[in-house]
Amino acid sequence: MFIFTLDFKSNKAYIATIIKALAQEHGVKLELGHSKEKLIMIMDEEDEHIERYLLALESALPASIYLSGSSHQITDEKPAFEPLLENDLPIDISLCPTCQKEMFDVSSRRYYYPFTSCNACGSQHTFLEKHPMLRENSSMKFLVPCERCQEELKSNPLRKDFPLISCIECGIAIKMVDKKSERYANDKGSYRTLFEVAARAIAKGKTVLMQTTHGYRKFFVPKPENLLKNSIMMVTEVASLNKHLMMVTQEFNALLSIERPLVRVATKSDEIKALYGSSTWVKYPDDGMSMLLAKELSNAGVSYLSYEECDEDEEADFLIDFDIPIKPQEDFKLFINQDTKLLQSGERAIFPTLLENDKNRVAIADGRASVMVDGRRIIDSVDRFSEILTTEVYIEERENITLTIENQKRFPAFKAAMLSVLAEHDKLGETAIGVHFDSRLHFLYYNKKEVIDVVPPNSFDTQNLFENISKLREGSDRLVENFKAKYPDRYKRLDNLSGEVDIFEVVAIMIGLEDESFDGISSEALSFLGKGGMLIDTKVKDNRFNDYAFLASLMSFKLSGAQNPILCYSIYESFGDYIADIVTQLSDKTKATTLTLSGATFANQSLWGRIERNMRVRNPLLNKSYPIGKESVVYGANYL
Ligand SMILES: [Zn+2]
Ligand SMILES: [Zn+2]
């Protein structure tokens, strides 16, 4: 037997789909299975087609954040493996190499057709109205495939029974509008012209609002005076990645992977530093619309640009859109620190997922639900399910949803988040310590039955912020007075806070960051180039983290002239030390050897660096195929 093994850390099906389709095309008999994060292909070593097949596969398989290496061997012993789960869930990733080639091939029926896709790639989920994925359940239901597309459904293994098949002849028309004219792309030639015109306009400094399959994006060439706070840098050619950005290989590979995540990357060239500062979110063109625009921009000499996610009413010089309804998913962010790769947040390229769990339970959290459809359990946005039948519902406690079903339980997110990590690592039978860190910090213990909040966060009351700080200890009231005198505006804003404000937002306002969020503090910390930070107080009397002590400490550092980069860096360093300290105490007490980390706050270079330094020996576990943030909660709720 000839065994070919791919290291593939995901249960997504698109890689397997390409492997199977090409085997069929090349007449190779193939057995395909998986075992411990590997895809195993078993072929007959005597098969004369193998060599050509493997060569074809090499150019047809996309780079993927889940794909790391491969190996092969000839053996008489068949390796143990499990059959692949039947998985035809719609995806929303970039184009596979075969479809890309087709989209840029002047002789194809999909030349510059932005909705080119196949069973293994492209934007599919955005067209899905409800599960299961069928043409009649998608917003493309009124487009009738032309004869050649019909034929392809039978003859092209990559598009066998592909529900969303279309081409220039039968597909989605696009339209471009400016103040004077309208132009349509609906036949061969006109698609390319439209992108050409748009790219030239952008090169001349105009703005283009474009409906991509990921929602509306406003594209423009950035200048320091027109750069918007939430704008993302998009590169139009690979060379400009290395020219303008400082990247490790993992970041470079991830940006170009078919999942096309957003990655925060350190800037390199003076040009980019002047625009974005020390780091920026970067995107390599992902959907067909963005890819075609990028291609024409590159032809027009524009090697990078900016875009902002927005809605259809955004002001712009040109508008490009289409008439088929779409429901885009939130883009996903990938966190990379040396060998660590974490899905930080978001849903695109991640959901929907299949769940192997036979409980008849529906779980709902963060707008997503796990629901049985045709005998399979799918996790996706609540609005993609036409009906939800069950006898038991678990709803995350902050979820704003009312159901008439009798048997419903509310649960806190942190419990399910810890369980999601244990479930992903097959550790549900062991005791474990967990640290959950979103806007609040929880220390948890799992006793093989349930998750207990052993060190819950102290209550944090932003209404009486300064009053609480004043009462901390002797002299604290003077600290508040000094802060008020030196920063009257910030004092006033913080004094008037109401509603749910998290500690990071308070910190950002207090030290005067432009981006008043967790992200703002993270990017400021990233610009700190020194070695050690300052020791920020985290506790008062008991063992627990005290927000007021923490804020008081920050205030006094700020008043004594500390710069924001070192302050922000020190914030994470202090959190890292505090977490390690409590984890040591808990593991001494409970003897549990498994440690889980959950919550999107961990996706932070400074904090992660400190966690690695302090806790590497404990080998902490985090989510693998689910994001480490709130998105994993719906999955974990199945194990409550
Ligand atoms: Zn494809
Ligand atoms: Zn067609």
Please supply descriptive tags for the structure shown above.
640 residues; 5 domains; Alpha-Beta Plaits; globular; alpha+beta; binds zinc ion; twelve-stranded mixed sheet; DHBP synthase; 27 strands
Description of the molecule:
With 640 residues, the protein is α+β, with helices and mostly antiparallel strands. The chain folds into 5 domains: 2-83, Alpha-Beta Plaits; 97-159, no CATH class; 174-328, DHBP synthase, CATH 3.90.870.10; 353-427 and 630-639, no CATH class; 431-620, Nucleotidyltransferase, domain 5, CATH 3.30.420.40. Helix content is 31%, strand content 22%. It has 19 helices and 27 strands. The strands form 4 sheets. Strands 6, 7, 8, 9, 10, 11, 12, 13, 14, 15, 16 and 17 form a 12-stranded mixed sheet that branches. It has a 6-stranded mixed sheet with strand order 18-21-20-19-22-23. It has a 5-stranded antiparallel sheet with strand order 4-1-3-2-5, covered by helices on one side. A hairpin with a 2-residue loop joins strand 8 and strand 9 (215-220). Helix 5 (190-203) crosses helix 9 (288-299) and helix 14 packs parallel to helix 16 (547-559). It is globular, with a radius of gyration of 26 Å. The model has no long low-confidence stretch (mean pLDDT 93). It binds zinc ion (2 copies). One zinc ion is lined by residues 145-146, 148-149, 166-167, 169-170.
